[in-house]
Specification:
Number of helices of chain A: 7
Strand content of chain A: 15-25%
Number of strands of chain B: 8
Distance between the termini of chain B: 47 Å
CATH topology of the largest domain in chain B: Alpha-Beta Plaits
Shape of chain B: globular
Structural class of chain B: alpha+beta
Mean pLDDT of chain A: 90
Strand order of the largest sheet of chain A: 2-1-5-3-4
Oligomer: heterodimer
Radius of gyration of chain B: 18 Å
Largest sheet of chain A: 5 strands, mixed
CATH architecture of the largest domain in chain B: 2-Layer Sandwich
Strand order of the largest sheet of chain B: 1-8
Largest interface: A-B, 43 and 46 residues
Low-confidence stretches of chain A: none
Order of helices and strands of chain B: EHEEHEEHEEHEH
CATH class of the largest domain in chain B: Alpha Beta
Distance between the termini of chain A: 63 Å
Largest sheet of chain B: 2 strands, antiparallel
Helix content of chain B: 25-40%
Chain lengths: 253, 163
């Protein structure tokens, strides 16, 4: 266990916790845009900056990436930090003025108008989609491209990805809704990444329930070649119900 | 550790459990009733498997077992990839399109200290029972034997009537 001080409160958390986790556990709110509990921290948005004092030196660090150390003195809401957060939100508000999550966060930190020229992008470069694809799914179909103001998320050469499995996790973790996954007919389109995939139909009812590539990946990784997994969720339930019916109650024909 | 047991022959397929579950969970129901063989309803819910494939397959560790022995989805950790839906042989986890997170039966863990799960409460025919999982094996064998006896009696009754 590690003991530290957050906003004049003594905290005691398990070893390996980050500053953000410790603060959240003790009820201190730190605003974040790029943090997801299920994915490794990345420190992209810098909204979670806190003031960390160790010994005589004091500095601002992103709390999501900073492991808590013994004897740290942490302040989560000083005048300086508020100033930095306001600046970040002004910049993000100029980049993505229409994104709901950005507007909400800007209101939270007290920013209503940005003094910078607007860009009308829909991606805030939080990297959640990149981390979900690389660290959770393990496919690395997308990554950050270019540098500076041209930085963006895309597939290699912005071409139809041949490793993307079309699980849709990137779209579901995207805080601004920039990535959209749509199914039309027998194809799934990942609009933001110019990617299209074939869908897998249920062998019983013909409903498309996943993509062919995701089906193959799960077949290799987890389920094997069982017939059952070729069915959609509703048909799996029906299949199991009819399997239960036989041995349990042999009443009705 | 308590589990929801299904008593065959008592279910009338009214789907009260489905409605009650939806009502308690913002209309994202986690209970299902499947009608097989034309008119034979069987409620299908999460089994909270001992060796849960969804828990093993979850890439972010969002699917965990809680203190009641229920397999639950930790919303904050779920990225909505849908791997659990693919690997569940019972077709139980379903992605909620609004929040983009997986939803599944959590055994009503939020009310479990005081009450039974909402589907068990709602069942008008007591077809769902919330019983201790580690009941003596002998009791379980006797219970199953009773079911089979009832079933056989019922079937022979039907047969004699047909003759």
């Amino acid at each position: 266990m590690i003991a530290a001080t957050i906003n004049d409160t003594e905290v005691l958390v398990e070893e390996g916790s980050t500053v953000l986790q410790a603060a959240t556990k003790y009820g201190f709110h730190i605003p974040t845009l790029c943090y997801h509990e299920g994915l490794p921290a990345y420190g992209a948005c810098r909204m979670c900056l806190v003031e960390i004092t160790q010994g005589a030196s004091s500095r601002l660090e992103s709390s999501c990436t900073r492991p808590l150390e013994q004897g740290m003195v942490i302040k989560t809401d000083t005048r300086e930090i508020r100033g930095h957060r306001k600046m970040i939100m002004e910049l993000l508000l100029a980049r993505c003025p229409d994104a709901e999550v950005v507007q909400e966060m800007a209101r939270e930190v007290g920013v209503t108008e940005s003094r910078f020229s607007k860009l009308n992008e829909d991606c805030i470069l939080c990297g959640l989609c990149v981390r979900a694809c690389r660290d959770a799914i393990g496919m690395s179909a997308i990554s950050f491209m270019s540098r500076g103001i041209k930085r963006h998320v895309d597939t290699p050469f912005s071409m139809n990805s041949d490793v993307c499995v079309g699980c849709g996790a990137c779209a579901r973790v995207c805080p601004t809704g920039a990535i959209r996954v749509e199914d039309y007919g027998a194809k799934r389109y990942v609009r933001y990444f110019n990617t299209e995939l074939e869908l897998q139909p249920c062998e019983e009812c013909g409903r498309y329930f996943t993509t062919k590539r995701f089906f193959e990946k799960n077949k290799n990784d987890f389920v094997g070649a069982d017939e059952l997994y070729r069915l959609c969720d509703a048909c799996r339930r029906r299949q199991h119900a009819s399997m239960l019916k036989g041995p349990l109650v042999n009443v009705h024909p | 550790m308590k589990r929801i047991h299904f008593v065959p022959n008592r279910c009338i397929g009214c789907e009260e459990c489905v409605i009650a579950c939806g009502k308690a969970h913002d209309w994202h129901t986690r209970a299902f009733v499947e009608v097989v063989g034309g008119y034979f309803p069987i409620p299908m819910r999460c089994s909270h498997c001992d060796d849960a494939p969804c828990k093993a397959a979850c890439p972010t560790g969002a699917i965990q077992r809680n203190e009641f022995g229920a397999i639950i989805v930790v919303k904050e950790k779920c990225i909505g990839c849908g791997t659990c839906a693919e690997v569940c042989p019972f077709g139980v986890p379903v992605i909620d399109d609004v929040t983009g997170k997986m939803i599944k039966c959590d055994l009503c863990s939020d009310i479990l200290t005081e009450q039974e799960p909402i589907c068990v409460q709602a069942c008008p025919k007591d077809a769902l029972e919330f019983v201790e999982q580690d009941e003596p094996l002998e009791n379980r064998r006797q219970r199953m034997a009773r079911y089979i006896k009832n079933a056989v009696e019922h079937e022979s009754g039907l047969a004699s009537r047909q003759m």
